Amino acid sequence: MKNFNRIFKFLMLGFCFIAAGCDDYLDINYNPNNPTDAPLAGLMSNVTYETSQNVFRIGSSTSYYVQYLASPNPASGTDVMDPLSFDGTWGSLYAVMTDLNDLILAADENNAPHYEGAAEVLMALNLAMTVDLFGDVPFSQSFNFETVTPSYDDDEALYSRIFDLLDSGISNLSIDSDASMGSDDFIYGGDTNQWIKFAYMLKARYLNHLSETGAYSPTEVLTALDSGFDSNGDDAQVEYFEEANNPWFQVARSNANLVLGGWISEQFVEATDGTTFGVMDPRISYMIGTTDEGEYVGTVNGAGRGSASEQGERSTLVEGDFYTNPTSPVLIATYAEQKFIEAEAAFGIDKARSYQAYLDGIRAHMTKLGVPDSEINAYLSNPEVAMGVDAFTMADIFKEKWIALFLHPEAWNDARRYDYAYEDFDLPENLNPDLNGQFIRRLRYPDSEVSRNGSNVPDVTLLDPIFWDE
Amino acid sequence: MRNKFILLALFAVFQAANLLAQERTVRGTVTSAEDGTPLLGVNVIIQGTNSGTVTDIDGNYSIDVGENASLIFSSIGFESQEVQVGNQTVINIQMLQDLESLDEVVVTSFGIEREKKALGYSVQEVSGEEITRTKQPNIVAALQGQAAGVQITNSGGAPGQSARIIIRGINSLDPGADNQPLFVIDGVPMDNSTTESGGTPRGLSNRAADLNPNDIESINVLKGAAATALYGVRAANGAVIITTKKGEEGDVRINFTSSVGFEDINQYPNIQETYGQGFAGVYDPTSFWPNWGPSIDEIREIDPDAEIRDIWREAMRTGVQFDNAFNISGGNEKANFYASLGHLTQEGIIPFSEWSRTSARLNGELKFNEKFRVGANISYVISGGNRVPHDRFMERLVYNTPMQDINDYINEDGTMKSIGGNTNPIYDARFSTFEDEVNRVTGNLKFTYEPFKWMDINYIAGTDYFTDSRTEITPGPLGIEGERPLSSTGYITETRIESRDLNSNLFFTFKNNWTDKLTTSLRIGNDVFQRDYERVDATGVDFVIPRFYHLNYASQISNDQYLRKRRLVGLYGDLSIDYNDMLFLNITARNDWTSTLPIGNNSFFYPSINLGYVFTESLESDLLSFGKLRASYAEVGKDTDPYRIGQTYNSVGVPLNGQLRFSRNDQFGDLNLLPESTVSIEFGTDLRFFDNKLGLDLTWYKTNSKDQIIPVPVSETSGFSTFITNAGEIENKGLEFIINAKPVTSEDFSWEISFNAAYNQNEVVSIREGIEQIQLGSQFGYVGSRVYSILTEGEPYGNLWGSSYARYGANDDDIYLNKDLPIIIGENGFPELNFDLKVLGNSTPKWIGGLRNSFDYKNFDLSFLIDFRAGIDQYSQYDNFFAAFGIAEYTLDRNETRVFDGVLADGTPNTQEVWLGQGEGPDGRDYGAGFYRNTYRRMSENFVHDASFIKLRNITLGYNFGDNILNAFPIETARISVAANNIILYTPWDGFDPESFSAGAGGNATGFTGLGYPGVQSFFFTLNVGL
Prior knowledge:
Largest sheet of chain B: 22 strands, antiparallel, barrel
Distance between the termini of chain B: 57 Å
Helix content of chain A: 40-55%
CATH architecture of the largest domain in chain B: Beta Barrel
Distance between the termini of chain A: 76 Å
Oligomer: heterodimer
CATH superfamily of the largest domain in chain B: TonB-dependent receptor, beta-barrel domain
């Protein structure tokens, strides 16, 4: 009957010619599917989750450049450093920065400085990740629809913006406020002290990126670190969910189901199984899987798996390891990483502090993985690892940091600063011929951006370094 | 409000006042001069008045006349006669068929029949017989080649797969806009949308495919804005007016048609069958790489039983189609009816693809008295099938080794047999199911009340209601050791779509014969349209019990709900003036109010005017039997989709730890959005020679669509990826030719020719300041060879852009690739690549057309339809994959050494010899992945090809049984026929039928074949019996 009434009304309307009442009839264009405002908590949970996803997204490409991973197929694009178009990653980075922009504005309007501060810290992080991949990128004209073709900001200038955001974040997080974050904050559950430490840690990370530039100040790095993480308990990470499993777990599971991926590079296997450095790293069994024979066998980047079968003959990510549980965390910034930054910054100032930080970094990472103390102590007393302050070199820091940053995007920043000078680190087979026998230095601007904002996109090659790498 | 006054003023003109002294009664019978049958519905009018009557079923009439009266007898299809009454009381009339106007009745807006000669614009009619003869289950596909300026493209060969119709080119810059015409059935608009699957393409149906072609009496294609002004915003791209059959007075007629058809792929690509599995020329029977191994001769030295098979043919089957249709009709002077049942099933060439349609229809009309009639049509359709993931199917054929039996795909335990980690496409097609079922009811009621001879009132109310239930299942692991599952989790998605259209249309018609030469007709009306649409998707991931696929037994559930409501109100007027059957003037005006634009901008007015002049009325010529000139000017407004204004947030994914995540929608709609406006001008002529044996119809048109509402893809760095705004103008101009000829007409033999051709030229006149281009779509190509469809100012719609070989001396500012310039060869001896996008071709055909020939010889009839398109390019994704995987025939030269033709960076000729193969070459140099993977596959230029074709679309041979045979059975008519579709395809395109595109009929990015469902050829046998 209800339907009939509705139809009847409709028919009556058919008989009526346009009158004032018809304005109401037409005033129905209110989107029932999408609200016009978003709650702070809803934005917060999204930006913390998506930041973590961005760390994964970038890591899932750069892990091939730094040879954590290698493709089972020969001449795979990421292995051989082809000029791939990372439209998805680019879009995800700007999508989360857009939400962060809105969160900062909404938090400011609603007088919620903790939300504002946390959003500023995450904005700094996502912006830095973007700059580190692409160099000059749009930012100052972005997000608020000033223009549909934002111009590109200089990468060096964006770094000062990053530091400003971190400083502003720290001061906002330090304000007393009732509007506090809670379980909507997937990183710290609303703990502002930890957020502040995280901001200082990031400050140290990005100041340390400047190591090859004239602006580098190791003392500033160390000053920032002093207010950074105090232990693994401060690590910035998102633990995954029953409803949304850890993305590396998904890679491992797909691989187990023969949707191949997550194969370990020979470089990583040999660096940890004793081949390269003469010491078996106990972490290997917490990080990667073995062949059916129980051995660690890597795959050469760019070469493919050759005659190896799809399963059981090479090391891959496997379900259930530290990085690959359904609810494993994705690590955004860790105490271990901070210790290696300290080691690097202190190296020329206080080598003893540097050495100690190096040892602490290894221990922190091993503890994080759950390696038993006995094995940690054995590793840390092996002369290949604990070579003593005098024999200790920058190469040792970069090597151990590279292991501790397994699958993390920061490893590629290090590799570029370090000119890929790791022990026995070779170019991939079938290298992209345009690279003239050199390693990749940046990503190409994605096709989506070239086609929509082409006149602003800088003309670069894969060999042009980011400003801190020049 | 001003507009309303104009309409009322026009109405006032029609003050009818005619009172005449009437003295006596005249009666008589009107018959056809040709065969003496009584004629129903002949108008009998007292000259100089509005008074008159019509003849009844027996051709009888009676009318009261005054002194010195004369009567005018007129009926469509017959020559009018004027008779002085004098003293007569009985006047019997024989009507002569009017050759000029024979077959000249066309159905225009709201199902109103009008004489074609009175129209100032171009209309083309296709008869129901011409539709059914094609044996296309989809009426859109059946229109192919049959109407000038109407471009039909099958999106592929899957059962039930959508076909797209575009009239006179694309009018919208919006990549998501529906550029297809409005479909109207029996005066009521119907939904012809295509809702593709969200994931991999599945080849779903356009909703007009729900119509049973056997029910169709005729289809009229209204092309210009003038023809469609009365339908308002939804007909801005033209209209397809469908009239279904109705019962005729007389005995009950029963008709039964049964046909069976078989189909196969009509064209295969050229593939190599020399090199087998492996990479870098090394044989590996478990390799991922199907064709980069050594030659079969070398392989046989290792594995003597090895063979290279044609998996492309082996994976397909012969498609089968059964179509049974039954109808019964009849009537008397008070009422008539038509009822039909139809059932069609179709199995496609890709295993497990199928579609069926069951339809029922009842059309009826009841005449209460001379003044009041009611008609009602109702149809109920169930359609749907299993839609295989054809794109993935074809992609997996690329990866699968040709050295194994592709049909050997399943182990006894139900798991897949997989080689080299590849998914077997047949296994996938069988188990990754996607079933849809549409239940659809369309119906209308039409009331006609004619209180006075000079006025009638019509009210048509119609509804189009359907539910579309879709179930997509991809199994997860079966829990068997060592299996290769299709998905690591498996999932089920249940989709429920409910759509309801309501249409109401009330109009008044006023007719007046001012003098015997001047008649006018005015129609004013109001229509209201409302569409309610709701879609709910529920997805369950990770089945707890293998092979038990149900939402309740999935570990993770997520939902999605989408609601939409749109309303439109229109007010219109239509004035026709006919002077002496020679000069016809038609003026229309319409105002629309829409719910989808901001209040204040949501009312828009648009007029049209058209003029027809039959100059042969004042000209006696033996050569020229009929000649008409016509001209029209029309505007049409257009609104947009609901909820496109402003900025919104949406919730993302499932709640995590109880937290619902919010993200800003990446689309922003202009707060001051205005309606679009389309202005079109048309001039044409219709000429008939030699007693109508030769006809020529020429039309020139120009259409400009301005203030286009476009979702402009913008840099994601702006905070949105799409900005919906009024921007830009697009212009279409073109010529249409229709030539009809009847070279032979005799008792035993007749021959008719009908040819149509259309040329369209399209230009994006402007976009918007600050926006240099709009990307319509793009399709994947390996490392840098992705091809884009991008609109830029001053260029035609449909330009395809991509990477190319670097050219020596090329001007960087030139957007077109100049293939005449020499290719630059790099220091490594291989061509250098240019990743700056250049225009490589255009996907909009310049010429389209068709030629039909029909021969009748005694009881035999033969007809064939050829259609063609020319000046069109497409990106062949198949070719890109075939190059990357060493499948294309041209990769046979992979082990050769070559000096590439071209110049070095300094302009001197290249002389360096290089090897095309993989790994270490004969010169000891490491060539890596080889020429085809390192160079060739990366250049879009290599894969954008000419996609013109000429097709023998249909050839039908029929035999009608003669009376001598029929008399032996209780049947009236019987016919058997054989038909073949697409059996001849002539095209420069290497690959499957170039008539294919991956977007489905709803999409506008037509230049991309994807790895689409291959086109087919088919053979049909049909038996038709009438009782």
